[in-house]
User: Fold this.
Amino acid sequence: MLLQPKFYTQQSNQSNAVASESDTRQYISAIIDLNKATTEELETLPGIGPSKARAIIEYREKMPFTKPEDIMNVPGIGQKTYEKMKDRIKVEGKETNTQIVTANVGNANIAVGTSNVQSGKININTADSETLQELPNIGPAKAKAIIDYRNQNGGFKSIDEIKNVKGIGDKTFEQLKDLICID
Assistant:
């Protein structure tokens, strides 16, 4: 076998060029935290362009995401888009920092995570649908109506404002008022 110095030198220089090029590249993490991602990072998600990336950021400024599924509350992002991106998004801290607080509702004790709770009360500005359904007389439809109302109005300014949600009147409010908060 003969060694060809010219070939060896070219090959060696090419591998050095590749190594130095890869040292300067910055790659975006495969999994993106919805509450921390930049516009550019969000645009790497399937189905997300500049306008939807801005919509995600505007949404999270009003109300931080509590779970990945919350992205479907952003206008223009539905189930199909969520399915395409669900393996690439996360909401950090929910699993590791959740503490259980028990709220006494009538004869039942309800366990809720502190991310949606203040002094044993459920925060109606940040609670997800499942947490809202833990409240008396709040099923999936009313939980969705609460979330839709807060998204359309930039959150609740007072707990009394929940009476503006279709299906929640004075009687239901009386059952809820000691169990909910807004911050």
Summary: The beta strands are 32-33, 89-90, 100-105, 108-113, 117-118, 121-123, 180-181. Confidence is low (pLDDT under 50) at residues 1-13, 17-27, 94-118. The CA atoms of residues 121 and 179 lie 5 Å apart. The two ends are 77 Å apart (CA to CA).
